[in-house]
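Shift notes (night). Ran Methylenetetrahydrofolate reductase while the centrifuge was going.
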Amino acid sequence: MLKDKIKQGKSGIILYGLTPPKISLSSDEAKEIALKQLQRLEGIKIDGLVIYDLQDESNRNSNNRTFEFVRTINPEIYAKDYLQNRYEAVIYKAVGNYDRDEFRDFLLTYNSSISVFVGASSANDTPKLSLNEAYKMKKEIANSLTLGGICIPERHMKKHNEDLRVASKRLKGCEFFITQAVYDIETTKRFLDDFAALGIKNTPIIFTFTPCGNEKTLEFMQWLGISISELSKRRIFDSNDPLENSVKLSLDMFEFLYKYGQTKGVSVGANVESISTRKVEIEASIKLLKGIISIVENDSLENTKSKIQSASRFDE
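Came back to this:
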């Protein structure tokens, strides 16, 4: 079970991220979307789903938003009523969207769930509830809830303290972390180095990966604050098939971070998503997901073979 893997600090946790449908859709339309999402994942061995809770991030970025912000179905409702709890779910909660009574109701109802609390996207926001207030309420009301936090490796390059932010959230009850989409391997590696140096155990860091098939998707990713190195841009777009190249790049980055994390004593996992709603990019995210699963399974097989070979030496 996903919750057990988190509690035990396991490496190789694999999740798939979904954004619920627009709240303006009819129940039948939302059910149809949910069915398609589940059909894409049929037969794929994942540990669980990440169900996002969107918030308007316009105050964080003065540039025009590439895609219009729309309200979506609450993630916990989408997981239960539309996805039928088919998979264990990590429920994102943008806590600033809720007042204390609304958030208390969530904590009381979903006390045994897995959730990631997300704070305000900008200091200019006026949230109904702060992240620290949400942490405090969780401690008072929902001790059985498995809590996760947000980690932004690219922020480490600018402020050099993302490792300390994670450590602080760990003290406030976070047991695992999910990052923003990774497209800058050097910055992410530096974060891993500094986080490993803190010696914090049993805390999975789940890196997010998403395909990028065209300039429009790239523009939106950058608007969201995702750091994309020039090297990554060249590797993706200096080709006849940017989407395929982005999948290959993400696989290379995950394999490096996964194995590098092992050498550093940090449990590394993956969350795959499609930021775009384009069918080809959604399909590419499924291809990426399968590739990451293969990397984890092959590594596990190689480690098992190595242990068997080591043990057999004593029988000679």
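The two ends are 39 Å apart (CA to CA). The first strand starts at residue 14 and ends at 18.
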